[in-house]
Amino acid sequence: MGEDDGIPILVKPERPNFPRTVSELAPGGRGVQLQAKKNTILKSHGRPPWYGEDGLPISDAFVVGIGARQIVQMLGSIPTVVILSQDSFYRKHSPEQVVLAHQNLVDFDHPDAIDMPLFAACLSDLKACRQTNIPIYSFSEHQRLDETKYLYGAAIIITEGILALHDPALRALYDLKIFVQCDSDLMLARRLRRDVKERGRTIEGVLDQYLRYVKPSYDNFVLPTARHANIIVPGSDNAVAIELIATHIKRQLKDRSTKFRKYMAEAGPRRTLTVPPTPSVSGATTPASIEEFEGWSNLHVLPQTSQLKGIYSILRDKETSRSDFIFFVDRLATFLSEKALEHLPYKPKTVVTPLDVEYKGKELDTEYVCGVSILRSGGPLERGLRRVINDVPIGSLLIQSDAQSGEPILLHLSLPQCLRLRHLAVQTYVFLLDAQIGTAASAFMAIRVLLDHGVREDHIIFVTFLVARKGGICVLRKAFPQVKVVCGAVDEGLRETWLEAIEEGEGQEGAEARKVWVVEPGMGHIGDRYYL
Predict the structure, then answer these.
(1) Quick one: CA dihedral 81, 138, 176, 445, positive or negative?
(2) Which parts of the sequence belong to the Phosphoribosyltransferase domain (predicted)?
(3) Do 324 and 218 fall into the same domain?
(4) What is the mean pLDDT of residues 368-380?
(5) How far is residue 438 CA from its own chain's centroid?
(6) Pairing, β 231-234 against β 62-65
(7) Over the range 348-372, which residues count as b (16 or more CB within 10 Å of their CB) and which as e?
(8) What is the β-pairing status of strands 81-85 and 9-11?
(9) What is the pLDDT of residue 29?
(10) Helix or strand or coil: residue 367?
(11) Percentage helix, strand, coil, to 5, in the chain?
């Protein structure tokens, strides 16, 4: 088969109101132009939690070796799927090898043509719920390009390729191994149609390559791998076999699912701890009683001055005009961002003032700082962050509640370049922005996403307007004790209520309702008040 169709893709939900995911786009247009026809975007349900209440992953991605795309279509409403093709992992060729490749004198069906260690490394990262960057291969140039394709968020990984069962390191990563038997005449007919139509090759060239390389490689390397398969499917379009495989995958995903949002919402404090007092406007100190944060010094609340209380009074008032709400939100966001900057590393710096006097000050001691906003309630904090850090790159995460279970679902991510490359992410400090921490379900998922990319836990600074004292913050601080939380106020707790499902049932009688928890007294739907 050699240089077969397909490059790895991220299957995502179709949400026309939001940008396409970074995972869907190769960095740089060249790879997209070369391989755009090979991209297939299928509907997906989003990615449910893949971690437990301790913050650690409890299930890896489910990996199917040598799969058919029909399997994905049979799965229906499913979490995020990545289709990973061996054809992205052809080795980089020398100029001499490129010349031979254009003359059909290179055996692309031999196992040595594939960079198996890199294939296994990328698959291992995805299986462990980490991000990865896979190579992009140009079929027209017979060369691996300098660009890479960023992928993250796989709940199901389907690998494609005739040699996907050949390498022991790859086989060790599969949860389900499938070998698809196909008639040799059919394989030759497909190759002729594809190479002539899509790759501009002649019939004579295709036949010569098939007889010289493809058929011997299939007999010597591909066919013997059938003994490693859990399932052997006769025929490439075997609907019965595909349905059985899809049913098995659904059952595996159900067994791996985790639900603990209700626990987080009801994980209220058990004891009272008086944290260090905050100065009042008169200079005196007043104690701030915050429960259940025993031994956790990483919750930082702004000093409760009269000015700050005045701002919150305006923001909590439902009669406040939209223009006033935006003005004071931006002002409060600036205060919070300035406070958050205190948790970045600094080093001494000496400058000479306009009066030719030396001044010994400080400067940032890190090269990489960025923000990540949890859409859309984190958006109102972005302007404040940009006011205190000029040109700071800000990415975004779209995390919404599942209409049935209420559990968070990761639907979209667009992260700065310093987070998409793991060797940079480990050096990066991240301001994570969200309007409030109630059940902390979204905060939990967002922090886990950053950790999956290699960000250090003590490099995450969560900036928020409100924290619910009796909500998920108690679970959050136990799971991620080194994450710093900077907030403006601590509200009493959460109120359980019911919300009608509007995405599917708005305007319809009998629309299902789901349980939600709202912060009280709170500030309402901050994102709606800011943007609408």
Answers:
(1) negative
(2) 303-497
(3) no
(4) 94
(5) 22
(6) unpaired
(7) eeeeeeeeeeeeeeeeeeeebbbbb
(8) antiparallel
(9) 32
(10) coil
(11) 35, 25, 35
In sequence order, which residues have a C-beta less than 8 Å from that of residue 240 and are 6 or more positions away? none
Distances 286 to 280, 282, 311 between C-alpha atoms, Å: 7, 11, 19
Residue at 50: amino acid letter: W
* CA distance linking residue 60 with residue 361, whole number of Å: 47
Among 174, 169, 134, 173, CA closest to 151: 134
To 10 degrees, what angle do helices 322-340 and 306-316 make?
A: 140
Q: Are 240 and 135 in contact (CB under 8 A)?
A: no
> Are 157 and 296 contained in the same domain?
no
The DSSP 8-state label assigned to residue 343 in this structure reads G
Question: What is the spatial distance between Cα 421 and Cα 456, in angstroms, rounded to a whole number?
Answer: 13
Give the residue numbers spanning the domain of 226. Answer: 9-256
Q: Record the tokens describing residue 113, joined without a space.
A: 């043509």
pLDDT confidence of residue 30? 32
More confident residue, 502 or 379: 379
Q: What is the pTM of this model?
A: 0.80
Q: Which residue has the tokens 């740089």?
A: 28
Q: Which residue has the tokens 């993250």?
A: 152
Do the strands 299-301 and 484-491 form a parallel or antiparallel pair, or are they unpaired? parallel
User: What own/partner pairs with CB < 8 Å and gap ≥ 24 does 317-320 have?
Assistant: 318/524
What digits encode the pLDDT tens for the residues 211-256?
888 888 888 888 888 899 888 888 766 778 878 888 888 888 777 7
Q: What is the DSSP string of 221-266?
A: IIGGGGGG-SEEEESTT-HHHHHHHHHHHHHHHHHH----HHHHHT
Instruction: State whether 151 and 217 are in the same domain.
Output: yes
Q: What dihedral angle (degrees, nearest 10) is formed by the CA atoms of 406, 408, 412, 418?
A: 170
What letter would DSSP give residue 155? S
Percent of the chain residues past pLDDT 90, beyond the cut: 38
CATH number at residue 355: 3.40.50.2020
Give the tokens for residue 3. 């240089």
End-of-domain residue from the set 209, 231, 256: 256
Between 66-75, 483-492, 499-508, the lowest mean confidence (pLDDT) is in: 499-508
Amino acid identity of residue 445, one-letter, is: M
Helices (H) and strands (E) counted in the chain, each on its own, are: 19, 22
- Domains in the chain, number: 2
